[in-house]
Amino acid sequence: xYKYIILLLLGAFVSSCDNFLTKETISxxxxxxxxxxxxxxxxxxAGMYDAIQTTLETNYFYWxxxxxxxxxxxxxxxxxxxxxxxxxxTHATSNWNNIYxxxxxxNISIKYLPTLNSGDAASKSYMLAEALTVRAWMYFYxxxxxxxxxxxxxxxxxxxxxxxxxxxxxxxxxxxxxxxxLKQAISLFGxxxxxxxxxxxxxxxxxxxxxxxxxxxxxxNAISASDYFVNPATNTYxxxxxxxxxxxxxxxxxxxxxxxxxxxxxxxxxEQDIVKQLGGGKQSNAQVKISRAVxxxxxxxxxxxxxFALSLDTLHLYNGVGTLEESSYDIINExxxxxxxxxxxxxxxxxxxGEYSKIIxxxxxxxxxxxxxxxxxxxxxxxxxxxxxxNDLSEAVSIVNQIRQRFSTEHNLTGGETQEELxxxxxxxxxxxxxxxxxxxxxxxxxxxxxxxxxxxFINERGIPEGFGDEQYILWPIHQSAFSANPELLVIxxxxxxxxxx
Length: 502
Description:
The chain is 49% helix and 4% strand.
């Protein structure tokens, strides 16, 4: 019964697709489709995590990095529609279907967990907090990708007269819901320490809330939300230093940097397309490589910033060009037989062979941090810099220096930087720290720098004289299948084909 309810719902407001309830625990739900005990609830939450994995395993990169200045096409590979920003309502990544699957699962938990009379109260409260966090997170992704989207906060229960079709909601209503959900989740989590970086926690809720306030340009509240991470009574996270930075990616559960990590195992989950996009090892046919802009920033720091060597296959690069300079970017891409300048963050180097142990897709169990401590602290630094009251600039400088001191104690900021200089420095630190972790496009969008930055990329790297262009999409167009599935969207179809300002 439950599976049929899900399919009916998806047919109402998203495009048709395979049922996401594939976990064995989910199939054990009662006939009416809703949890009646803690075991049912645990099964529903497990299914929610499965849906998150499916939703974000490649989309985090498509939405957050692929179109940005962080990467370039690797030879003749890569998605031209994304690189040239000629987005189409038929592109698979423009489909919000999977996001609403997650929201649906969260909605069921949010409504019915408080009604359960059996089970441990603390466990039920934690699961409710998880569901609230996840719903807010999915809507936060949705508004950044598509802008106005349908706001659905009730599960479909196959009741007579229940609403089937939803129009796109005003952004303010969606923002209000996101904030409300995250605040409630944080309250329910309390001070409980996260049990695993693979599980939603108060840390994740606080990180998303910080990110949300930065998107809204509400810098005082962004600082308040990030207070969690500087309060010894609540914070369990810490910076990884130069010796442990790689552990963030190859052994996430051992790193205190990680707030939430998306795990993908080839044996149990199948082939992950992100391997094809970012590269699976030496002589990879990766779709993308590092962009010239990021390459130059890394090269300028190569003598002290180990993130360069840890993010790229620099051993092979040195063998190919001798000395890594800004000009070597052209040598690598025009003269070498294979491009090696793809992302190797998630690959473990064998010190005996000098090769990566995960070379092909079937060997690659990518574990991708979607939020981590350094990234949130840099958001906090930016919030201080932008608010610029009292000692705010000093607070921002202190955070940047903490980030840099993991790699060198000789490259601290002086404290004499202007507000504008400091904001740009923080932007560069986030670019290098979080390269290929799904943040760059959103950073440019919220900063209002998309056109300025991407104009230069289009002109200098992609050979488009007119640049990014005023008529190109900033937000993704809504997938065409959504219009046939949801008549309420048809009234605004003509609007989504135009440039949307953020």
